[in-house]
Every structure is written in C-alpha cells, then in structure tokens.
Amino acid sequence: MRYFLEIAYKGTHFHGFQEQEGVPTIQGEINKTLASLLGHQVDSVGSGRTDTGVHCLKQFMHFDTDKEISDKGNFIYRMNRILPSDILIKDIFPVREELSARFSANSRSYEYHITRVKNPFLNELAYFFPMPRLDVEKMIEATPILFHYTDFEAFSKVHTEVMHFICHIKKAEWKEEANGKLVFYITADRFLRGMVRAIVGTFLEVGCGRLSVQGFEQVIQSKDRRKAGRAVPPQGLYLVDVSYPSSIFM
C-alpha cells in the first residue's frame, strides 16, 4: 500500500532533504524512523529536494508498505517521538499506488525571507541584508518580467542533470512586512536547482542599483548563469507548499 507523509522541518542542521551516506538529511532520518516502526527497509520518494540549510513548511513524500497503518494518530505520534525535534510529521494518508509525491505534483511554492534589521530571533531563519538604500520599488517593478519567460537557464546551477530549463511561473511577488522584513513569494510548476536563490540574488542587484530593470530582463534572455546575481544564502529559503490534483487522492 502507498502512503503519503506531509512533513515540515527546520533545515539548519541537515545536509538538505535527499538521503546521503554519512551526513544527516531529512529523508534519511524519516526513512530510518519508518523502518524502525514498520520493521522493514523503506525507500521513500520526496516531492523534491531542498539544499543544506533550507527550511520547509509543507512538503510531501511517499513510501510503500505491506503493513496497514490503521491508527494514523498513534503512528504520527510515534514518529514524532523518534525523529529529531527539527523534523515534524504533520499527516499520513493512503493514496492510490500510481500517485507519486514527485511526479504527480502540479506546482511548488517557495518564500524567501530577508531581514533588513539585525534580529537575533531570525538568526538561521532569514537572510540579514542591512543595505540602507535598497530600492524595493525597483525590485517590484522588475518582478512581472518573470511571467514573460519560461526558459530560466540563467538562474540554474550549472552542470545539473536536467533535460531542459523550462519552468512556468504562476506567481511572483514581493511584500514588505513589519520590523524590516521583506518576503519574496514564488510558485511554479517546477524549479531548477538553485533557481529561487539566484532569482532573489538578482533582484537584490536591482535593489542595490547595480542592475537596471531592463538589465534584469537581459539576464534572463542571456541564459547565462554568470550574468545573474549571486545565490543568496539558504537560511532565508522556505518550501511552503506542494499542490496536487484533488481528483487523484483516495
């Protein structure tokens, strides 16, 4: 039988989501916990990868087992007792066996959090960027340009094993919040490795006056990662949602 897990985690002390030998990862910790409770090896599949230090408010993974999980409340309780405190199991539910946490997803949504004032309570949870004259209005002006393109090779890590660089961005916006907080929201059908952090880094080049709004568009047109801004640090990035067609759930 196939089950979906809904999870959340603080990624500070993990080497990303994907299981790797010899280092702590989100998937590795969850696989070990599932194996302990189910009595057999578990090879889970996640809805996607996150890098070292990246956080998650909502992600899914699936696994297969011959054992029926009849009391899901107790199973979630036992998993959360075993897992490190930075990983949370939010829900578990059966799905049809053809449903994949990775390939059945419609879209994924991220947020990037920036604090422009020093805040010890946001340490490891936001990027401290104390630029006094950041032109947020220019960054907002450049944002709609993303909707005019689908090829985002300029924002992809180089030497990645992908067949193409096509992504359809459905939402992208900046919001200024209280106490010097700045948040970038983005939703797309898929993301390239390092894409969100490179996009935010390039927006900051616009905000700092080192790149014009027209220059931002030219970066995308160039399809050259060297023309884009540097990738911002991982601690400000959050995977916040993964959506699926409702009709495919049991």
TrEMBL record:
Reading the lineage from the top rank, the first entry is Bacteria
Which residue numbers delimit the Pseudouridine synthase I TruA alpha/beta domain? 8-96, 151-245
**What does the entry list as the binding residues for substrate?**
110
- Listed EC numbers: 5.4.99.12
Q: Which GO terms describe its biological process?
A: tRNA pseudouridine synthesis
Keywords attached to this entry: Isomerase, tRNA processing
Q: Report if keyword Isomerase is assigned.
A: yes
Catalysed reactions, as listed in the record: uridine(38/39/40) in tRNA = pseudouridine(38/39/40) in tRNA
Q: What family does the database annotate?
A: Belongs to the tRNA pseudouridine synthase TruA family.
| Cited function | Formation of pseudouridine at positions 38, 39 and 40 in the anticodon stem and loop of transfer RNAs.
* The protein, known as: tRNA pseudouridine synthase A
Organism equals Thermoflexibacter ruber
Taxon lineage: Bacteria, Pseudomonadati, Bacteroidota, Cytophagia, Cytophagales
Gene that this sequence comes from: truA
